[in-house]
Every structure is written in structure tokens, then in C-alpha cells.
């Protein structure tokens, strides 16, 4: 990006506000906002994301940046009355990352910058605490060595563990000044040996190198993986916050903690968080020492506790949401180091949204924007059966809900490897760190023996919607020997099955059976939200869904092929069927009739086969129309290649060969084999299928149309209200549609005459080929509706065979960042989406009243639903269990666009 000569790259905390997240990142914008609110924030300044972008694109920082940093550093030194790293009373600063969107632990932070061999003595004299000064110095060398100089972190950890063993202590706070001085020397030797240079003694060099390291960490492997997982754009860059240090490791009257204004796991109001005396902030989130509950701070430091409670109330009322807060107490003085809208579980999201409405802090439209379809989908997952016989072996902190079952693994590499082989795994660690991200993504759930609700494992798991139990202290995790010892001495080896309940914190041996979620029971009508004993979560879901249904413009239909699925879809709120795949009606016992059709040598044989299929098809449609009475049912005529209804060629060849060897009759098998060879295609998905079948196999489509028409007539005679729509698949030109439509209208007229029932059957087509999309204006002359088949449209636009490419190179494409997400999961707006938009516009230009929908898998994808709302479709159609998600997202899309219009 080109640099503007007058561009400002550095902002003091007094200059920004919470609305400048694009420029100052989330952390910097919120530090500025808290400063503006008059809260106790250590002075500092923020280097903008624009500076990061220049650095990442050019390989060097903007020329003006150094002078701007120097000016702000000088102002900070004047404010603090001391200079960075001076020998007698040094100013120390932290250098912390801060992207627009929270990426917990994914980028780099360095604390205690400004300490050196000279200034550490001054810090010891000024603080009156020699141990504190040398502990801070060893922390700087450790963090700087790992983060800035690329030294393997385990080398420092091993040296620290060796120092504790030599002293015969178990926690680092028991190390004395002499021990820490030795550790500093050891750490500096590690830096020299591994980095090929001395640890820098110049404090400004420390700060400048740390800033560049934070910039570089934006493109670190774990940060890129996290952004792909969370769908965060890769071009945002990170801001860097330079903040004067305050110290929680100055003794028992100091400490550090993380607090939530509400429970991020349940949404309940109360005192939630963790506190650690005599510690710096990284100790809490790393989970290396077990914290005490935040409520214990009241007895430890009542003054700071009361002040913190007041600040938490101020922040929640200001941000109108759950806030996640980091704080430090330095010798009884409370300092606020960060706040952000906190990550929360799916259940907490729904509860908090409705609680804030009830408190009058937000309205229903805003509550709808506070939840999303992915969270609703999580709430529909099964939970453990409380009545099952189980063997509980431990209990930790319920950090992120869900019922997860899998084989125990003890490192991320194994988790990824086994997961790719189809195994379900539970990642078990003492504590997780950012390097474990790929394993956390691969696992069904995460279990740690250390850490609390604010540890790395808990925060990241909640963000991803993964089940997590933290701080199960009674479990002894040995990652080197790949085992976990549970109370009573039983050993869980790698590969043994365990179950973890992220809603209760309980850990079980073996596989625990699951039962349906209460949210699913609510959607299926087995639980009423108005009942006195209704789950609070169910009531919250009910209220938000009711509002979404009131405001959404998109209707939601189901992809359903039988009466049972249709009835379930209707219970889930479906407003019709957008796709009934008739090929599913040709399987099982009916395959024999399809074989007869394929093997027919004469018109009489073909007619006989079709005549046998007709009543079976009609019965299917009668049941379907009855289940969806009064709602539209879009029936797609036969789509797949005929060879799919024949036996496998290898299996059939073996049967023929064996019959010939045994001299057994095999005339039918031989004819089938010949038919398989005759119908064989190199690329059947682009061959004889869809409308082409209807034009090449006489009577096939007309038989299906007759079955639909007769079923509709029967339902009318039974006082029903069938609303059938006939959909022609794989149309590429209007001429194909015209031919099929002529035949269909003739058959419908015959049924109308023979039954005396007035039938209104709509005729339309799927838009699933690029040519259909670009000639949609012509096709609309013959079609009363379009349904976008985005699965096939994605295949044909990209030139992908879905069955092949997802297994072959999609993983590599996702890892390399070519895809942010699979185009089969979320619609490719720039390519496939552009064709959809064009077809909508040209279709409506020809036929203003044309009905437009989508029936591909994208119809139930939250992000895609917003796109379909934007381009003006009338409905989306998806599998029954995704209907609630589509309803919610359709409401969010409508409420969001209304809010944008009003602004």
C-alpha cells in the first residue's frame, strides 16, 4: 500500500476510542475507550494496523514511524517521570499485539521491555524487592528470546524446571534472588547459543525489535490457521500497543487476573473470573499455575475487589454486552490492562442476549445480531444421557459446553493425524498453548489438568465452539509417556476412549451414550417454551427465533424426499419443500423396475416398466403432499445418470464370470453387464443426466409428471391443499425446457380431464449450469420459478468434481489460504455468487413475478443465507435439521439490512 505523507501511524491512548478498531485494533481501541471513561489504565500508545500493513508489504516499517514512536515515547517518559530502561528507576513497557478481531494467544507479546544488566539493579532498589526485579528480568529474556529471536521455548522451560528441582521447590515463586540471577545467566547463554547474538542491552532496540516481531506474528502459522478457522480476513494486519508496565509480581499484595461481567459458559450474572497473586498476566492465561476464583479477591484485597466490581458494571453498561477484562493489582493499586466484548458459549450468547433485552439495555433487533446460526447449531448437538451407567474419574472446570467422546491423544500432531484417518479424539494436555491450535481444531474436545475459565484452552475452545474441560487437577497428565493417571491409580493410555462434559466439567472413562438436546426437543414440539419448567435456554431460543421469524423476508423450505422427513421439517418450521429428489424413490425394492426400463428393447417393454413405477411414485407424492398440506412442494424430476441404478461393474462382471464357469443361467446378468458398459461415461456428472434423460428416454419424465398430477388430484378430492411445483434439472438452454414443458402440460391436461380436478402445477427449472445462469432471461420466458442448484453450479463454475477434489487437494488449498472456506460449504460470492446475482436480475427482468430460491447445501449455511437475502431470493431450502439455523440467519439478514438502511 502507498504511504500518505501526512498519515499518522501512532496514537496516544488519550486520542482513540472503541470505534477505531480498524485502525487501532481491538485492544488499542478499547484501551483508549477505558482511558476516555476515566478508568485506571497505564499510559501508553498504539502503533496502527496501517503501519503493520506497510511493513508486511514492503518488508520495512514506514519511514515516518520511528520519529512518531520517539515522540510518543518521550511524552510517555515525561508523563511517568522516568526514562525507558534508565539505570536508577527504569520505565518498563509491554509490547502487545492487538488485531481488530480477538485472536487469543495467536500473536506475540513481550513484557518488561527496558530491563538490562544495569537497570535490573535499579528496579531492585526502587521497588525494594530484589526477587521481583530478577524475576521480571528472567521473564523478559524468556519471552524476548522465544518471541523475537526465535529460540525454542522449551529450552527456557527446561532450565526453569531444573532450577526448581535444584532448589527442591515446585513453583517458581519459591525461587530466591540468587536462584533467579543464576537463571538469568543461563537464559542469556541459551539466547547466545541459539540466536547467535547476545541478549540486547539497549532498551530502545528491545522495543523496536519487539514491535517488528508483533508485526511478523500476524503471518505466523498459528495466526493464519486461527484466522482461517474463524474466517477472519488475512489483510487486516495487527496494531501494536506499547504500555507502561504495572507489576502483579511484587508480592502477596499484588496479582493479576481476568474477569467476566457474566459467566461466559452459561450467561448467568455473578462474579466470574480467575485471580493469581504475585504473578504477571501471562501466568493466568497460560494456566501454568492454578488460579483462585475471582470471588476470593474480596477476602484478599477488599478495596481492589470493590473497585473492580464497579468498573465491571461501568463497562458492561457502556458496551451493552458481556465484557472480558484483564487487570493487574500492583501493591494494592488496581490497573485495567484490557477489555473486550467477551467470547461466550452458544448457550451464554442466547441467554445474555435476552437478559440484556429484559434489562432494557438493547432491543430485540440488537439481540438477534448478538447470536448466530453456528451457535444455534451447537445447541442442537446431543448431550450425555444422565441416566446412563458411567464411570466418572474426574471433574474440572466446565469451560465450553458439549458432549465429546473420543480416543485420548496427548499432542497436537497425533490429534491431527488420527483425525484425518477418521478417528474421533480428545486432546489431553497439562495446559494448552497457541502451538496446540491445529490439534484443538482436529479434536472433538479438549481436557487439561491446569488452568481455569480464562486459560488459553478455555478461551480458544469457546471461540471455536469446542467442548472443553479445564483444571481437572486430580488427573495426572504425562505427555511424554502419553498417559493420564486418574484417582484410584487407573491409567488412561493413548487410544483409550474417554468422554468429557463441557457443561458440567465431568470426565468419564469409556463412551457415554448421548440423548437429544432440549433445543431440538423444543423445535420438534416435545418441549414448550411457555411451560413453567421450560429450560431457561429454551425460552431464550424461543424468544429470539420468534423475533427472527417476524422480521425475516426469506422463507425457509426443506430438502426432503419422503413424508417422514417432510413432517420433521414442518415441525422445525419449514414453509414447504424446496427440493424433493425423486431418484431416492427409485432405490431399494424398486430398483428392479428401473433395471427393466434400462434393459427394455421395445416400446412395449419400456411402457410396462414405466407403468409399474407410476403407482409407486404416485403413492410417494400423495404422502408428501399430505405431510406438507397447504405448503409448496418442489419435486425435481429424475436427475442422476441411469447407470447409478445398475449394479457395480466389477461386482457384476464377477457374477457373470462365475455363472459362466459353473455353466449356470446368467442371461439377465449378462444383459445388465452390457447395459452398464453401454451407459458407462468418463464423466457421468456431465453426461446423460437431468433434462437430457427426460429427452432421450421416452416416457420417463411424463410418467413422473403424471404421478405428481394424479397425486395432487387425489389430495384435492380428499379436501387437501396440494401445492406441487415441478422442477426440471440441469437445463442449459430454453429449448430443452420448452420440450419438457410441452409434454408436461399435455399430461397435466389429461389428468385434469380424467379426474375433473382443476390443477395448478407450477413448472420451473434448476439453475445449476453456467450457461443457464447467463441465459436466465431467455429461460425465464418458459419457467415460473428458478431454484439455484449451487452444489452443481459450484462444480461447473470451478471445474471441480466434488467427490474427488475434497479428498485430494482441498486441505492443501485451505492451508495455503487459497480458500478461506470450502466453496461447497459457503458460497463463492465473487464467482458462483456473481452468476446467481446475474441470473436473478435477468430472470426478473423477463418475468417480474418469477419465484426464486436455492436448494443446494448453501441454503443452510449462515453466511450464504445473508448473500441470498441480499440478492433478492424468495426462499432458501436446506436439510431438515438446518432449518432453524436458516430461519435465524434469514432474520439476522433482514434485521441487519434494515439497520444498515436506517443508518
UniProtKB/TrEMBL annotation:
Pfam families: PEP-utilizers, PEP-utilizers_C, PPDK_N. Residues 423-505 form the PEP-utilising enzyme mobile domain. PROSITE patterns: PEP_ENZYMES_PHOS_SITE (PS00370). The active site is at residues 456, 855. Residues 66-290, 297-350 form the Pyruvate phosphate dikinase AMP/ATP-binding domain. Belongs to the PEP-utilizing enzyme family. This is Pyruvate, phosphate dikinase. It comes from Streptomyces rubrolavendulae.
Amino acid at each position: 500500500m502507498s504511504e500518505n505523507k501526512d498519515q499518522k501511524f501512532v496514537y496516544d491512548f488519550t486520542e482513540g476510542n472503541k470505534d477505531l478498531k480498524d485502525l487501532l485494533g481491538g485492544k488499542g481501541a478499547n484501551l483508549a475507550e477505558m482511558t476516555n471513561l476515566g478508568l485506571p489504565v497505564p499510559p501508553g500508545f498504539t502503533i496502527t494496523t496501517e503501519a503493520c500493513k506497510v511493513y508486511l508489504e514492503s518488508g520495512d516499517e514506514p519511514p515516518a514511524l520511528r520519529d512518531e514512536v520517539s515522540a510518543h515515547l518521550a511524552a510517555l517518559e515525561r508523563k511517568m517521570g522516568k526514562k525507558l530502561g534508565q539505570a536508577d528507576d527504569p520505565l518498563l513497557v509491554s509490547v502487545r499485539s492487538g488485531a481488530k478481531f480477538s485472536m487469543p494467544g495467536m500473536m506475540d507479546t513481550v513484557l518488561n521491555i527496558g530491563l538490562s544488566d544495569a537497570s535490573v539493579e535499579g528496579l531492585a532498589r526502587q521497588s525494594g524487592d530484589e526477587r521481583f526485579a530478577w524475576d521480571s528480568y528472567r521473564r523478559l529474556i524468556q519471552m524476548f528470546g522465544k518471541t523475537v529471536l526465535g529460540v525454542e521455548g522449551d529450552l527456557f522451560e527446561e532450565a526453569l524446571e531444573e532450577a526448581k528441582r535444584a532448589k527442591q521447590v515446585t513453583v517458581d515463586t519459591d525461587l530466591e534472588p540468587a536462584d533467579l540471577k543464576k537463571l538469568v545467566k543461563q537464559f542469556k547463554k541459551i539466547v547466545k547459543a541459539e540466536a547467535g547474538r547476545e541478549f540486547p542491552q539497549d532498551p530502545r532496540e528491545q522495543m523496536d525489535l519487539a514491535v517488528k516481531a508483533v508485526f511478523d506474528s500476524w503471518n505466523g502459522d498459528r495466526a493464519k490457521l486461527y484466522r482461517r478457522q474463524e474466517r477472519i480476513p488475512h489483510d487486516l494486519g495487527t496494531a501494536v500497543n506499547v504500555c507502561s508496565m504495572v507489576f502483579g509480581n511484587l508480592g502477596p499484595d499484588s496479582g493479576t487476573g481476568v474477569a467476566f461481567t457474566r459467566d461466559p459458559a452459561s450467561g448467568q450474572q455473578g462474579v466470574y473470573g480467575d485471580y493469581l497473586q504475585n504473578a504477571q498476566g501471562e501466568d493466568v492465561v497460560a494456566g501454568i499455575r492454578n488460579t483462585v476464583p475471582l470471588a476470593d479477591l474480596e477476602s484478599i484485597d477488599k478495596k481492589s475487589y470493590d473497585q473492580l466490581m464497579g468498573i465491571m458494571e461501568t463497562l458492561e453498561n457502556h458496551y451493552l454486552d458481556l465484557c472480558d477484562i484483564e487487570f493487574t493489582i500492583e501493591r494494592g493499586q488496581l490497573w485495567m490492562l484490557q477489555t473486550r466484548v467477551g467470547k461466550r458459549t452458544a448457550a451464554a450468547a442466547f441467554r445474555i442476549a435476552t437478559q440484556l433485552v429484559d434489562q432494557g439495555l438493547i432491543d430485540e433487533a440488537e439481540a438477534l445480531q448478538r447470536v448466530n446460526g453456528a451457535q444455534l447449531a451447537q445447541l442442537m448437538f446431543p448431550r450425555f444421557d444422565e441416566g446412563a451407567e458411567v464411570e466418572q474419574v474426574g471433574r474440572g472446570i466446565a469451560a465450553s459446553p458439549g458432549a465429546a467422546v473420543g480416543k485420548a491423544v496427548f499432542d497436537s500432531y497425533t490429534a491431527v493425524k488420527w483425525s484425518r484417518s477418521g478417528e474421533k479424539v480428545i486432546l489431553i494436555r497439562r495446559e494448552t498453548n497457541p502451538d496446540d491450535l491445529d490439534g484443538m481444531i482436529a479434536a472433538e474436545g479438549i481436557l487439561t489438568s491446569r488452568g481455569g475459565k480464562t486459560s488459553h484452552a478455555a478461551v480458544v475452545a469457546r471461540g471455536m465452539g469446542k467442548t472443553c474441560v479445564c483444571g481437572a487437577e486430580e488427573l495426572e497428565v504425562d505427555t511424554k509417556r502419553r498417559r493420564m493417571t486418574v484417582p484410584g491409580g487407573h491409567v488412561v493410555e493413548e487410544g483409550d476412549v474417554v468422554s468429557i462434559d463441557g457443561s458440567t466439567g465431568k470426565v468419564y472413562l469409556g463412551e457415554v451414550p448421548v440423548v437429544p438436546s432440549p433445543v431440538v426437543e423444543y423445535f420438534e414440539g416435545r418441549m414448550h417454551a411457555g411451560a413453567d419448567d421450560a429450560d431457561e435456554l429454551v425460552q431464550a431460543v424461543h424468544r429470539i427465533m420468534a423475533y427472527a421469524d417476524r422480521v425475516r423476508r426469506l422463507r425457509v423450505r426443506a430438502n426432503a424426499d419422503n413424508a417422514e422427513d417432510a413432517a420433521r421439517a414442518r415441525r422445525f418450521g419449514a414453509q414447504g419443500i424446496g427440493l424433493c429428489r425423486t431418484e431416492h424413490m427409485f432405490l431399494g425394492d424398486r430398483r428392479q423396475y428401473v433395471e427393466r426400463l434400462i434393459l427394455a428393447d421395445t416400446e412395449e417393454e419400456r411402457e410396462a416398466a414405466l407403468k409399474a413405477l407410476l403407482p409407486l411414485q404416485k403413492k410417494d407424492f400423495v404422502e408428501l403432499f399430505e405431510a406438507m398440506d397447504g405448503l409448496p412442494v418442489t419435486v425435481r424430476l429424475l436427475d442422476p445418470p441411469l447407470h447409478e441404478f445398475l449394479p457395480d461393474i466389477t461386482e457384476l462382471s464377477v457374477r457373470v464370470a462365475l455363472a459362466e464357469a459353473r455353466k449356470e443361467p446368467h442371461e439377465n446378468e449378462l444383459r445388465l453387464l452390457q447395459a452398464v458398459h453401454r451407459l458407462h461415461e468418463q464423466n457421468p456428472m456431465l453426461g446423460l443426466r437431468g433434462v437430457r434423460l427426460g429427452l432421450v428416454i421416452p416416457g420417463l419424465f411424463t410418467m413422473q409428471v403424471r404421478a405428481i398430477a394424479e397425486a395432487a388430484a387425489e389430495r384435492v378430492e380428499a379436501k387437501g391443499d396440494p401445492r406441487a411445483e415441478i422442477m426440471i434439472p440441469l437445463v442449459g438452454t430454453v429449448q430443452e425446457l420448452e420440450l419438457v414443458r410441452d409434454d408436461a402440460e399435455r399430461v397435466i391436461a389429461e389428468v385434469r380431464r380424467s379426474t375433473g380436478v382443476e390443477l395448478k402445477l407450477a413448472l420451473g427449472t434448476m439453475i445449476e449450469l453456467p450457461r443457464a445462469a447467463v441465459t436466465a432471461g431467455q429461460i425465464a420466458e418458459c419457467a415460473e420459478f428458478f431454484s439455484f442448484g449451487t452444489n452443481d453450479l459450484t462444480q461447473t463454475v470451478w471445474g471441480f468434481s466434488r467427490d474427488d477434489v475434497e479428498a485430494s487437494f482441498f486441505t492443501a488449498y485451505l492451508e495455503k489460504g487459497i480458500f478461506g472456506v470450502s466453496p461447497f460449504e459457503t458460497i463463492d460470492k465473487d464467482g458462483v455468487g456473481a452468476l446467481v446475482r446475474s441470473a436473478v436480475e435477468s430472470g426478473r427482468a423477463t418475468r417480474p413475478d418469477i419465484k426464486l430460491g436455492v436448494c443446494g447445501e448453501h441454503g443452510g449455511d449462515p453466511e450464504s443465507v445473508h448473500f441470498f437475502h441480499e440478492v433478492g431470493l424468495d426462499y432458501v431450502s436446506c436439510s431438515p435439521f438446518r432449518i432453524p439455523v436458516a430461519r435465524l440467519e434469514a432474520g439476522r439478514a433482514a434485521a441487519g439490512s434494515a439497520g444498515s438502511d436506517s443508518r
